[in-house]
Amino acid sequence: MAHATTSPTTVALGEATVADYIALLKPRVMSLVIFTALVGMTLAPTGLHPVLGAISLLAIAVGAGASAALNMWWDADIDAVMSRTRERPVPAGRVAPEAALAFGITLSIGSVVTLGLVANWLAAGLLAFTIWFYGHFYTMILKRRTAQNIVIGGAAGALPPVIGWAAMTGSISLPPLVLFAIIFLWTPPHFWALALLKNEDYARAGVPMLPVVAGPQATRWQILLYAVVLVPVGLAPAFLGFAGPVYAAVAAVSGGLFVLGAVNVLRHREGKAARRACGQLFGFSILYLFLLFATLLAEHLVQSV
Predict the structure, then answer these.
(1) Total-model pTM
(2) What is the pLDDT confidence band of residue 260, given thresholds at 50, 70 and 90?
(3) N or C, where is the chain less crowded by C-beta within 10 Å?
């Protein structure tokens, strides 16, 4: 399926507002990037001046938004036929595709250069790689060609804590890589729970999501497999000594609930019960990741006082 290079002919191009350009940044996704990057920065043993740290965090957030804008530019044709995305600014005709592309490129360059000048060029290089990986490799190649698109593409969403750590230290170490692994393993079951709910949308758009290619039941088993593997990885910060007993307890309990949610998705295969199980797991998965990173952050701040 060719991507859209012009505004959908069924929608008259309207005048874009500031809110439309903010929507191009995917603010909800950006909030997760900001939070996980902040945790990576806070856990780092050395740091920047608070003002420079804040500018660095903003640059990381803007870089994430830039890749989202590039994603929306390229995926306008897909977004236009999916109920979940058809009201996005480009397919709805409020922002011209060329404007979304220029917006994404400008923010990409600005965020990378800013992070390089304010923090260091290792962090800037990682941010540039993340933007390229999501905006080009995932969006233009993986998403339309393989059912493993979310598995591989999840690396982009998992890199913010590594970038945050690198911004503070100029290096990469084990703790941020563990945080990367947690988000990387969390992404498939989180997104596949949504994909099960939106299976018809993806099929209509021609996107080879796992439920479309392998079927809903194979997807349910994959969700359970990832949930089971995620639990010990989620506990790894405590085992490796950069998280305390409170974190260990939160990770164990929430990880167990994550697995129970995945089992519930596997058990309920049809009708309202199946949709409810998927919706509950999707919602809880967001809470799970927030709890782990919030507990890490809280423990570190308490220890620092």
Answers:
(1) 0.93
(2) very high
(3) C
